[in-house]
Design brief:
Elements (H helix, E strand, L loop, with lengths): L2 H34 L5 E3 L5 E3 H17 L4 E4 L9 E2 L4 E9 L1 H6 L5 E8 L2 E9 L4 E6 L3 E4 L2 E2 L12 E5 L4 H11 L4 E3 L4 H10 L4 E7 L1 H14 L2 E4 L9 E2 L6 E6 L1 H13 L8
Parallel strand pairs: 3-5, 11-12, 11-13
Antiparallel strand pairs: 1-2, 4-15, 5-6, 6-7, 7-8, 8-9, 9-10, 13-16, 14-16
Helix pairs in contact: 1-2, 5-6
Amino acid sequence: MNLIALAIMQGEEGIQKRIAMGIAAVEEQIPLFQRLFGKVESKWKADRSRVTEADLTISRETEARILEAFPEDQFFSEETQDQAEPVPMVSEFVWIIDPVDGTNNFALGMSMCAISLGLLQNGVPVYGIIYDASRQLIMHGGKNRGAFEGGAEMRPSTRKESNELFAAFDGFSAERLFKLLTALKGQGFKMRNMGTGTLHLAYTANGLMDGSFSNRVSIWDIAAAYALCEAVGTEFHFFDSSIFPMKVFSLKAPKIYYYAGTPFYCRAVEQIWKEAGVFPSTT
């Protein structure tokens, strides 16, 4: 075996070990997640977002589990409270977690919430692991590796009638988001906002949704679900410049503005938005 083939084999083995560890790490946190669901006190961060004991404990314990096995990796979390400045991503493998995506739902006992753990290689998501509390199952997958949920293979939607298309949206009442939303609603699209950016994009990958768009998600919301989209061939488009490959992790990074979906969905919304004169420039 030549050196190139050996390096490829060793690299693949390293990814497989990380995938197995990531799935195990998320599985270990499910009992805590379920025990505290709807029964935990909240605190409020400086940005007025909610944080609970579950967010902090799941983040801390998952980081310890991952870095014990792979000390050469970097691990970042939405709950890295002491990180004041952007941190360069210098490791080949980087983990990004949202320990509870949909914390408001979680704290109030509403089931649309998730644990989201993404694995990046050279700044690009290559595998995602998501615990979907609403269906009590794990979704996981990555490009050229397939995507799975509860043991079944994940497949995107095949719907091709505008009055049958479901679109998930996420964001504040910013003017640009409202215009996009109004244009699609006027064409008969079924619109859903479930309060969790992770599940909006993950459901776009597994076919529950035909597409999704947002003007307010952060990298920890979508790192794992982006990998699921890559696994099944779901398109993902940034309205602003692409953030991949990522070079730094920052809690204060600008919000991500994107749309994603099946090829049919993406061509349909692009045409609708262009005809309505609300389609932003993309790069």
